[in-house]
Amino acid sequence: MTKRNLKKVVLAYSGGLDTTVMLHWMKAEYDCEVVAYCADVGQKEELSGLDEKARSTGASRCYVEDLREEFVRDYVFLAVQANAVYEGLYLMGTSLARPLIAKRHIEIAEKEGADAVSHGATGKGNDQIRFELTYYALNPDIQVVSPWREWSYTSRTELLDYCDRHNLPVTTSLKKPYSMDRNLMHISYEGGVLEDPWTEPPEDIFILSNSPEKAPDTPQYIEIDFEKGVPVAVDGQGMGPVALLDHLNSVGGEHGIGRIDIVENRFVGMKSRGVYETPGVTVLQAAHRALESITMDREVSHLRDSLNTKLSEMMYNGFWFSPEFELMRSFVQQSQANVTGTVRLKLYKGNTIVVGRKAPLSLYSEEFATFETDDVYDQRDAEGFIKLNALRLRLHGLMNRK
Q1: Average pLDDT of the chain, as a whole number
Q2: Which helix H or strand E contains 21, and what residues bound it?
Q3: Among 14, 18, 188, 273, the one annotated catalytic
Q4: In what order do the strands lie in the sheet with 220-227?
Q5: Beta strands of 82-123 (E only): which ranges?
Q6: pLDDT bracket for residue 126 (50, 70, 90)
């Protein structure tokens, strides 16, 4: 089947400028039915009125799917268990959401008997890859319509002109100096005034967090409980995944935690400047790492950490449903078997400071670690240990001396 013969397409629809034009354009270009689909991963007010807007633009139906619980439980918390950070800084709020959105996209396409799926990602970004790798992994025969790679439009100015010509409902204007993507984990800002990496982000763009200068002058102490590497309670109060992350976003954001300004390497090859707010997961990452320090075996920890660069790249690039990622997921989850306990943190002026950790299966022993007199460690044993480890170094030194 060629794209000219398409009868029904399911479009990943946000109600923004790009997907509004795409919905109308595909109906005209392919003379096909278009079903709109929006994944609720925590965009909040951005979801208001989507069904009415999609239908008024030409959609035959609009699905708004609540994926928040699955997003936090199966994607965000797995990244926390793995201590996954792309290029040392980026916690991947956008990257983690895309495979889940695409998975449900395929399920709806199959339910609707659609010939193809479509998304609003541009031909320069990572999201087109993340979406389509998932599409093809879950439905190898699916067709993909990617308007930004197919139509003649090259700018959002042209899309606004299109909306004017066709009387399409859109609230976007050229006055907004950046683009924004929001979910339960973070908000990202890029483009516009942020394309110059020397330009400081305007303070008024931030939504989830205070600036450290405006954060409270008094630190706040919190305690987070984990079970097998998964956060389950804050200050002794059990919470589900969505409520817990929402709460930590609020608490962390109040204290100016989770802002980063980075230039990252996109999978397609170019560098991109992004500004992110990720308060809750910034707090969780610090707490989780602290708990692992007393519950995880040294060699298991080092092995997991040695794989983190590769694991983070797979998450960032969209290989969530690949064979290698399934293997890594299993390894990460097994490594968390004993990561159960409580971490106490001090939140202050943009800083997440670990001040205490305890666990029922802690490997930390005061008897072994003490600087005082003990009966469990004979310090004379260290001499032989050092000499055995120094043997190859001594041989190397003797050879160099010759």
Answers
A1: 94
A2: helix 17-30
A3: 18
A4: 237-238, 230-234, 220-227, 341-348, 351-358
A5: 116-118
A6: very high
AA letter at 363? L
Catalytic site residue 204?
no
> Which of 61, 74, 179, 305 does the annotation list as catalytic?
179
Distance from C-alpha of 394 to C-alpha of 380, rounded to nearest angstrom: 21
Among residues of the chain, what percentage have pLDDT more than 70? 95
Q: Exposed/middle/buried for 319, CB within 10 Å: 0-12, 13-18, 19+? A: buried
Indicate whether this model's pTM tops 0.85: yes
Q: What does the alpha-carbon distance between residue 174 and residue 190 come to, in Å, rounded to a whole number?
A: 14
At position 238, the amino acid (one-letter code) is: G
- Cβ atoms 316, 86 nearer than 8 A: yes
What is the Cα–Cα distance from 55 to 315, expressed in whole angstroms? 34
Query: Would you say residue 1 has pLDDT above 90?
Result: no
Catalytic option among 40, 68, 95, 98: 98
Question: Among positive and negative, which fits the CA dihedral 281, 282, 285, 291?
Answer: negative
Question: Is-catalytic flag, 18?
Answer: yes
Active site annotation includes 179: yes
Residue of 115, 127, 181, 225 with catalytic role:
127
222 within 8 A of 83, measured Cβ to Cβ: no
CB contact set of 16 (below 8 Å; sequence gap of 6+): 120, 170, 172
Closest Cα to residue 179, out of 240, 122, 136?
Answer: 122
Amino acid, single-letter form, for residue 347: L
Tokens 């040294």 map to which residue? 298
21: region left, alpha or beta (phi > 0 left; psi from -120 to 50 alpha): alpha
DSSP 30-84: H--EEEEEEEESS-GGGGTTHHHHHHHHT-SEEEEEE-HHHIIIIIIHHHHHHT-
Rounded Cα distance between 282 and 273, Å, is 20
What band does 2 get if pLDDT is binned at 50, 70 and 90? Answer: low
Are 376 and 367 a contacting pair, CB within 8 Å?
yes
Beta bridge partners of 277: 187, 259
The answer on pLDDT for 172 being more than 70 is no
Which residue type, as a one-letter code, is found at position 361? L
Establish whether 362 is a catalytic residue. no
